[in-house]
Structure to design on (282 residues):
């Protein structure tokens, strides 16, 4: 193994985590995080899952040592990741206080639930509010995090390691940015999926069979995303590299980049999502 690869593997490892890591809510996002933790060598016997209806996949992890809804005393957690739906948070989160101490790092991935809500429900904890997105399910997500004053450098390092199990992690200092983050990356995958839908419909309108149009749209969107991921070039340069002057791509872009084209539409869409995020936060 090359030194750089070995060093990266060591940085990604969660083998050194001590104490208990409690996952509250093991749905799609919580389950994706849990799989990532175990892949990064977090000791399964240190993991407790609290979920009223765990899936078969989650239940199967009990054979590896993960504690699923243990009836005994859980104790105070080293880290707690709260991944329940925000609608049920007011009922569930305050009940978690028994497992939270002054050194517990509580990481919330609940959309719209503010730091103030979390601090009020769990006043002893160091709080990290985050916004992940659905590509976390395949380890290609991106999460933005913000911590309160109780988060120490060690606590931030632990939170970062737990979140990095599902993809990239970025930190901000201003919680007010989280509504815009939600609008861009949290909701963003839906915009990309809509692009694939629309492109397929446009293909059918141009005369393609529906199945072929859908496959072309799907593979083009996913392949272009992977190229953007792997390339050192920015999106604008990659776009320009595809566009020959006076060619077919240029003709299409003249429509998409018109004053009433995709830029103002996305700006309006992101603004609407950010506004709704503020409304949901109360």
């Amino acid at each position: 193994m090359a030194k750089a690869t070995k060093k990266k593997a060591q940085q990604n490892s969660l083998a050194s985590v001590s104490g208990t890591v409690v996952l509250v809510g093991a749905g799609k996002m919580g389950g994706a995080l849990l799989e990532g933790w175990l892949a990064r060598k977090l000791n399964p016997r240190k993991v407790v899952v609290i979920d009223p209806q765990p899936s078969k996949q989650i239940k199967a992890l009990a054979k590896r040592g993960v504690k699923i809804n243990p009836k005994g005393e859980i104790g105070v957690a080293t880290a707690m990741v709260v991944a329940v739906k925000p609608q049920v948070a007011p009922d569930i989160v305050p009940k978690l206080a028994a497992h939270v101490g002054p050194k517990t790092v509580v990481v919330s991935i609940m959309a719209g639930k503010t730091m103030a809500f979390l601090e009020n429900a769990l006043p002893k904890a160091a709080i990290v509010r985050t916004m992940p997105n659905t590509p976390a399910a395949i380890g290609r997500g991106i999460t933005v995090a913000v911590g309160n004053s109780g988060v120490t450098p060690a606590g931030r390092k632990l939170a970062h390691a737990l979140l990095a199990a599902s993809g990239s992690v970025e930190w901000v200092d201003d919680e007010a940015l989280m509504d815009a983050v939600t609008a861009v990356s949290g909701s963003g995958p839906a915009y990309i999926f809509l692009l694939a839908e629309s492109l397929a419909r446009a293909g059918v309108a141009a005369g393609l069979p529906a199945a072929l149009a859908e496959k072309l749209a799907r593979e083009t969107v996913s392949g272009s995303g992977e190229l953007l991921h792997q390339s050192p070039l920015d999106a604008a340069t990659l776009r320009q590299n595809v566009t020959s002057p006076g060619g077919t791509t240029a003709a299409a872009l003249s429509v998409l980049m018109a004053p009433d084209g995709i830029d103002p539409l996305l700006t309006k869409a992101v603004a609407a999502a950010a506004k709704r995020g503020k409304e949901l936060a109360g």
